[in-house]
Amino acid sequence: TEQGSAITVASSFSSSDDGGYYNGAVIQITGGTFSSNETSSADDHLFVLDGVTQRTSGTFTGTNITVSYDSGTEKLTLSGYDTIAHYNTVMSALGYFATGDNPTNYGSNDTRTVTWTVSDGSQNVPAGQGQNTSTTTITIDAVNAAPVNHLPASSPGGNEDTPIAINGISVSDPDADPRAQRKP
């Protein structure tokens, strides 16, 4: 939900390989992103929940897996040689939340596609292709925020027979397209 609590993207994650170890993984928002008056890269956030910490950098507790997040590319990278079981645990802890007033781009982008790619370090296996990749779709529920009245800091003086001008009054709607906002 827009500006709501973070969600767990996959309550459990399962992957396998014949070697028993991975060398890295990439989890990235690859669909539904946009750039308008707000950008999805400013609004979308991925992390892994490490205990009570929303980890976007550093080593995940009890593993050799280092976490790093690039908000510009919406890419969470896991690196380090570790067991598949540890990678599955870290990927099961993936979380997402949206912070902006318009994370659905006025309803045009109400889903995000998250692409998961794991690597055992083998050469010539392109990321995002074949057996090492899967996707998940997240649906975002927009919330209609109430308009906000902006009043002047002080009231103008006057008497009952004389009209007065009141300056500095405006109304804004955080959900509205800024090109459509008007000031009286």
Low-confidence stretches: 179-184
Approximate shape: elongated
Q: Level of helix content?
A: under 10%
> Which structural class fits the helix and strand makeup?
mainly beta
Largest sheet: 6 strands, antiparallel
Q: Roughly what fraction of the amino acids lie in strands?
A: 35-45%
For the biggest β-sheet, the strand order reads 5-6-7-2-9-10
What can you tell me about this protein's structure?
- The protein has 184 residues and is mainly beta.
- 7% of the residues lie in helices and 36% in strands.
- The chain contains 2 helices and 12 strands.
- A 6-stranded antiparallel sheet has the order 5-6-7-2-9-10. It has a 4-stranded antiparallel sheet with strand order 1-8-3-4. A two-stranded antiparallel ribbon has the order 11-12.
Task: Give a short overview.
7% of the residues lie in helices and 36% in strands. By secondary structure, it is mainly beta.
What topology emerges from the helices and strands here?
Layout: E1 7-8, E2 21-31, H1 40-43, E3 44-50, E4 53-55, E5 57-59, E6 66-70, E7 75-83, H2 84-92, E8 94-98, E9 111-119, E10 133-139, E11 148-150, E12 170-172
Antiparallel strand pairs: 1-8, 2-7, 2-9, 3-4, 3-8, 5-6, 6-7, 9-10, 11-12
Which descriptors would you attach to this protein?
elongated, mainly beta, single chain, four-stranded antiparallel beta sheet, disordered C terminus, 184 residues
